[in-house]
Amino acid sequence: MxxxxxxxxxxxxxxxxxxxxxxxLAAIARKLGVGY
Length: 36
Description:
Layout: H1 7-19, H2 25-32
């Protein structure tokens, strides 16, 4: 099932990653429900 992410969601995701950059990328990806 392909997900279409809006620009707003992408911006929020980027801000979340930057705010939590101390976490492993895999952990962040799991929280966002993306891959890994």
